[in-house]
Amino acid sequence: MAAWKLPLVVSAIALPIVAGFYVGGPGLGMAVGAFAAATIIVLAVRKPPLEQIAIAAAPDSRARLLVVLGSALEASGALAIAALVEDAALAGALPEVLLLAPCRSSFAERWTSDLEPGRQRAQADLDQGAALLANLGLTTAARVGDENTVQMTEDTLRDFAATELVLVGDQTAAEDALACRLPIQLHRVRPASEEAKAQPVPAQPGMSIQRTIRPLRTS
User: Fold this and answer.
1) Which conformational region is residue 96 in: left (phi greater than 0), alpha (psi within -120 to 50 degrees), or beta?
2) What is the pLDDT of residues 31-63, one digit of tens each?
């Protein structure tokens, strides 16, 4: 946004509220303020950010996979990720793999500001995933992130030079929000049972892999 536009936006929000207090008193002023706040929220939801996600500069040409766990990784899912690592390794050194899990909390935990149970659940998912991949000969790093998957992924990409992003589990909303803004390849790995719910064709046992590459939107 151009610098000169910001004062106009602030004025467009503030002046009706001030006028409401002046003309109709506190009641009308509060009503206008509530309407302005609701309008801002609706516009923000209807128009999410479309700018390209910034990714840290890579120190070398080595491939790096960021694996975002939407659910606990299973053995078949580990095999799918190992296949992706093998494909990336064909172009050079063994890729670096970072496992990322969100710290999700229940309503009661949020209400009491007790984030530790959520962190423990996320760490348990990371430990399970790291152990499964270690059994396949893959060394991984692990990190607990923000509860919001999109924000967590953006924050991690600022200091992890990923060349590919892997979403594990049913993370359709996160995929839709990230795919159009990613300058790297995106993969989706989820159980065949979940694929069967979305497709009428019976899925084979195990884990299916879908590779999605979408062009960036320009504005």
Assistant:
1) beta
2) 888 888 887 776 666 555 567 888 999 888 889
Give the Cβ contact number of residue 51 at 10 Å. Answer: 9
| CATH for 84 | 3.40.50.620
| Residue showing tokens 């070398």 | 60
Taking the C-alpha atoms of residue 175 and residue 186, their distance in angstroms, rounded to an integer, is 8
Is the confidence at residue 210, as pLDDT, over 50?
no
pTM: 0.67
- Measured distance CA(82)–CA(187) in Å, rounded: 13
Q: 21 with 88, same domain?
A: no
Per-residue pLDDT of 161-194, as tens digits, reads 999 999 999 888 888 888 888 889 999 987 655 5
Nearest to 136 by CA among 206, 205, 211, 84: 84
Q: Give the Cα separation of 64 and 57 in Å (integer).
A: 12
Domains: count for the chain: 2
Tokens of 167: 């979403």
Domain that holds residue 20: 1-47
